[in-house]
Amino acid sequence: KMGWASGPAALVDAVMGAKQFLSYTSGAPFQPALAAALALPDTYFSGFAAQLQAQRDQLCDGLAAAGFEVFVPEGTYFVTTDILPWGFTDGAEFCRALPELAGVVAIPHQAFYDDIEAGRPLVRWAFCKQPEVLAEASRRLLAARSRLA
């Protein structure tokens, strides 16, 4: 069990209580890796965060240019978009059609919702990719959008 949390005592206690019953063991190889990571200078982590933010912004810009309503994330490497501007109403249907339409993939949000209808028009995209891959995906989506219009 690895990790840390900081915040008000009541919140940290709640996190620890939930974590206690969600994890039974951690991967043994990750423990020395985490110890090595903690020895890295702060500049490594600030540089990594800046890189991810640039990739987030690159993908968000590409998705917006392709006509999606984009919800810019602040703490994940997934970007959420609404697919309604593309004329789709069902995220799962959209995601099944997307490889043929544009040669890219996304994940339907409805898979994560108890209320499937609430997540139906939303999909998520990962930006933990090389900038060249994000640029190509953005080009493909823009071209696909042009063909659908």
Secondary structure elements and pairings:
Elements: H1 9-22, H2 30-38, H3 42-65, E1 69-71, E2 78-82, H4 91-102, E3 107-108, H5 116-119, E4 122-126, H6 131-148
Helix pairs in contact: 3-6
The mean pLDDT is 92
What low-confidence regions span 5 or more consecutive residues with pLDDT below 50?
none
- Cα-based radius of gyration, to the nearest Å: 19 Å
Structural class by SSE content:
alpha+beta
Strand content: 5-15%
The beta-strand count equals 4
What global shape is seen? globular
Tell me the series of helices and strands, N- to C-terminal.
Answer: HHHEEHEHEH
Strand order of the largest sheet: 1-2-4-3
Reported for the largest beta sheet, the result is:
4 strands, antiparallel
Share of helix among residues?
40-55%
Q: Helix tally?
A: 6
Distance between the termini: 50 Å
Kindly describe this structure.
- This protein is an alpha+beta fold.
- Helix content is 54%, strand content 10%.
- The protein contains six helices and four strands; from the N terminus they run αααββαβαβα.
- Helix 3 (42-65) packs parallel to helix 6 (131-148).
- The mean pLDDT is 92.
